[in-house]
Amino acid sequence: MTKIATAAYPIDWLERWSQFEEKLSSWVYEATGAGSRLLVFPEYGAMELASLAGKEVAADLQGSLRAVAERIDDVDQLHARLAQETGSYILAASAPVLGQGARPVNQSRFFAPSGAMVAQDKQIMTRFEREDWGIQSGDPLQVIETDFGTIGILICYDSEFPLLGRALSECDVILVPSCTDALSGYWRVRIGAMSRALEQQCVTVMASTVGDAAWTPSVDANVGAGGVFCPPDKGLPDTGVIAEGQLNQPGWTYAEVDLAQIAEVRRDGRVLNRKHWQEQIPRDSMAITRQLR
């Protein structure tokens, strides 16, 4: 049994880098002090770092993107140190990172207790990211083997696409860092996360940004909550909800997860969605059009 902590994370105005160090350290030590071994921060939580460049830069969409990208090395060093100090796995809040092309990617970085890191890029951009912000798709999905279990990451909108979930079908746990500005957006991602848990018979862990930050055009409004989901099957909650936080309430949501239960459901569940996935493929083009008047 392993304890997971997933964040409902507020976007704060920061005057100094030391404020971010103190904030992140406080969050990490609170969760690990409660016994958590896997900590999940949300999509675009790192955008609060744009405030360190001043109000004018923070209020500029492209300027704020570049300001945060310039801080990534320092952010990574801080997360690596905290992961080592606490002996925990930490999914850092995603951030715009300057990739190989002319445009940035939206990237989450996953840190091990050793301080080692794997970077995961978002696959499919929302309309805001592609039309207003100019974020591009990054490198492919990865299956990450850890001492805790096999981990995959679907960043926000990615969780709404079944074939991306299928690409991570070997994962015991799929992390879903999210950033949504309306209740409908929160529920789209939550429904996606719960659907991927059902289809691949795994645990999904959703983290969210919360609260208002009027000083930034990128994450000015945030609606969400932490949540940990599973297939509703034997030995697991009938609702498919292991834990859920209070909507828009900052803080950690905790869940005890037994991956042996996931393995058992995959082996001998009441249904076997993951095993039977391939059976839909020859049938998905067989729909017949009928006229009934």
TrEMBL record:
Keywords: Hydrolase. SUPFAM superfamilies: Carbon-nitrogen hydrolase. One of its GO terms (molecular function) is hydrolase activity. Gene3D superfamilies: Carbon-nitrogen hydrolase. Residues 2-259 form the CN hydrolase domain. This is Carbon-nitrogen hydrolase family protein.
